[in-house]
Structure formats: structure tokens, C-alpha cells
Write a structure and sequence with these properties.
Largest sheet: 8 strands, mixed
Shape: globular
Number of domains: 1
Oligomer: single chain
CATH topology: Rossmann fold
Number of strands: 8
Helix content: 25-40%
CATH architecture: 3-Layer(aba) Sandwich
Length: 218
Amino acid sequence: MPEVIFPGPEGRLEGRFTPGPRPRAPVAMILHSHPQAGGTMNNKIVQLLHKDFVRRGFATLRFNFRGVGRSQGTFDNGIGELSDAASALDWVQQIHPEAEQTWIAGVSFGAWIGMQLLMRRPEIKGFISIAPPANMYDFSFLAPCPSSGIIIQGEADEVVTPSAVQKLVDKLRTQRHITIHHDVIPGANHFFAEELPQLMKSVDDYLDMRLGQDFSGR
């Protein structure tokens, strides 16, 4: 997948982009975990999500937030990173202006950013949030959450407490017109170190259900 450099709010942003196989291909963007805890676009989970969406025929982008890798700028506690994500989505949409649908996926900190982005971008029709840090950041902005999606949590997550994520899920499930799926991966820690196959099966089962065979790539 080709390396790309595109403009962000604080200078250039570095990414990896796989174009869609057809003009109206759906779009997916994947957001990495906390920059100050070693999160980059080359995180294993981010790479697996990228490959999964590509296999399903999506135009797929993952990128480094400001101050990570070759992306310019400095960490901005989520405010600037949300602007980075908006700029990245703008860039993809310039390439695929007729995308039939848009998805956002995020890991930990990236899940928090992604869920803020979907509040601002009505074209986002689905989300995948992996270990959203509900015990560290305020998710009350999801009122109401505009899109259906899945939240996946590790049963033995030592960073994000499963109870905080369950509380978030319960709150979102009270909202009408959306459906929130919630999978807990037995024995998995925050990084799903030994449970990546189970994590990706959860993602695949959900995408199979949401997208059907039209986008399955099978």
C-alpha cells in the first residue's frame, strides 16, 4: 500500500492509503492508539483493520496523528488530533467523492477520536471502537450517537476498565434508531496480545452482518 503525505492543520500528515477498486467504493479510516504511549499507524491491530477493509473493497486510510512518525506538529490532548482526523477524511473524500458509505475504526485513544468525528460527519454510517477509554475520557458528547457500530473490549484489559465500557454501551443502547453491538474477548488485555485472531473474528462477524455479501470480497 502506498505511502501518502497530505496536508493537516499543523503541517503534513503521513499515512498509508489503499485506493478503492471502483469509483464509488466505500471509504474506511483507521485511527491509532495514544501517541504518547507508543501508538502509531503501524500498530498491529491498525494494520489488521486496514487489511480487512481493503479485502472488502474499501478505499482505506490509516495515518499518524501529529507528532508521530513523519507527521508534523505536537501532541494536542485530542483536540488537534480530532482536527487531524477530519483533515484525513477530507483528503480521502477528495479522491472518492462518490463513496457509497464511510466507516471509521479506532483503537483506544483512536476510538475516542473516531467517535467524536462521527458526531461531526453525518456521512459516517458505521464504526468499530476497540477498547474505547471510557474511564479516561468523557464520552457524553454521544448524545445522541448518530451511527450504529460495535464496541470490542478485552475481558482482562488493565488500562480501560471493562465496567466503564459496559456503562458506555448501556447508555448508548438507550438511544433510538441505532444498534450498538458489544463483544468482550475472554482473557484479552488492552493490546489483545494473545487474542488477535479472536478480535478480528469479532470485527469480521460484525462487518459480514452489516455489509452483507456485496462488500465481503469473498
